[in-house]
């Protein structure tokens, strides 16, 4: 969908050539720089590989140095332009070190893919024992990384891009697994009044209820609870940032969207799922490279827009 502010302040929409078979017009070059967080495994690794295969310069990052260095060896041996830098998205000093290194070595950045995330719910287990770590990594890590990298993103008419890896489990109005608190759901659904304060007020409330054991009656999603809440926050943050970034002058716009890879066989799902890693990464790479990047603050799966 295409979003443009009308004089009345409403949003106008028109159709874009979406779908699995939508082609990409090449706007990038070997100087185009993409950063992928959590790039050492499965989805993150495959996003790095596909972006590098398209000819971009890719910075693969991971919390664990050994795992990251091992990950880029095969890519580099295959002739792909991929380098590694350590990055822990929950550590401010690590983010700052990465930003300084990136600026010194590359200058402006073109693409950021926020993929780093954790999940401790395996199979039918719905433990919330690690809820604080899940929220800290999946939401606050995404938020910190986005805010740190925005000043580095390259001004251009084509626009820089941010892609947040999310999940349908975080949908506000899905048939299953949604927040049962209708008032909160309506507040988070209203993009005009959506605020960072609302998101940052919602998460401590959830964590407090986890801590005191009242989360089951608090109206929170009942399946993959902490992971779902973290991705709900990522989705809300994506919509909020899209509104802010849309206000930037022409030539300085940044297009931010999120997508769901689907039920992919990765460590986060205990290697159970319906989609291959290649299928799960397709829409994310497509969002990063789509030339007519006139949609923002949207949620995608299989290259199709879905509801928040």
TrEMBL record:
Main enzyme class: oxidoreductase
UniProt xrefs under InterPro entries: CBR1-like (IPR045313), NAD(P)-bd_dom_sf (IPR036291), SDR_fam (IPR002347)
Presence of keyword Oxidoreductase: yes
SUPFAM superfamilies (UniProt xref): NAD(P)-binding Rossmann-fold domains (SSF51735)
Stored CDD domains: carb_red_PTCR-like_SDR_c (cd05324)
Family membership: Belongs to the short-chain dehydrogenases/reductases (SDR) family.
Protein name: Short-chain dehydrogenase/reductase
Species per Swiss-Prot/TrEMBL record: Glycine max
């Amino acid at each position: 969908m295409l979003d443009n502010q009308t004089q009345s302040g409403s949003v106008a929409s028109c159709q874009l050539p979406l779908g699995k078979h939508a082609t990409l017009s090449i706007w990038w070059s070997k100087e185009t720089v993409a950063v992928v967080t959590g790039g050492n495994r499965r989805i993150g690794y495959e996003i790095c590989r596909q972006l590098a295969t398209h000819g971009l310069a890719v910075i693969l990052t991971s919390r664990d140095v050994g795992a990251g260095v091992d990950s880029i060896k095969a890519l580099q041996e295959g002739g792909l332009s991929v380098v590694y830098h350590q990055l822990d998205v929950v550590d401010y000093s690590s983010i700052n070190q990465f930003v300084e290194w990136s600026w010194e070595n590359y200058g402006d950045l073109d693409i950021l893919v926020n993929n780093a995330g954790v999940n401790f719910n395996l199979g039918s287990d719905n433990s919330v024992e690690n809820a604080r770590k899940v929220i800290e990594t999946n939401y606050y890590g995404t938020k910190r990384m986005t805010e740190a990298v925005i000043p580095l993103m390259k001004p251009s008419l084509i626009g820089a891009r941010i892609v947040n890896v999310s999940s349908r489990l975080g949908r506000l109005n899905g048939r299953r697994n949604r927040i049962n608190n209708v008032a909160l759901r309506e507040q988070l659904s209203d993009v005009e009044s959506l605020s960072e304060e609302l998101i940052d007020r919602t998460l401590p409330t959830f964590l407090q209820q986890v801590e005191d054991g009242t989360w089951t009656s608090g109206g929170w999603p009942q399946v993959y609870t902490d992971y779902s809440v973290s991705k709900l926050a990522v989705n809300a943050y994506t919509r909020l940032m899209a509104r802010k970034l849309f206000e930037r002058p022409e030539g300085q716009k940044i297009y931010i969207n999120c997508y769901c890879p689907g039920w992919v066989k990765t460590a986060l799902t205990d290697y159970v799922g319906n989609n291959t890693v290649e299928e799960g990464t397709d829409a994310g790479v497509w969002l990063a490279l789509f030339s007519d990047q006139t949609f923002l603050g949207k949620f995608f799966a299989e290259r199709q827009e879905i509801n928040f």
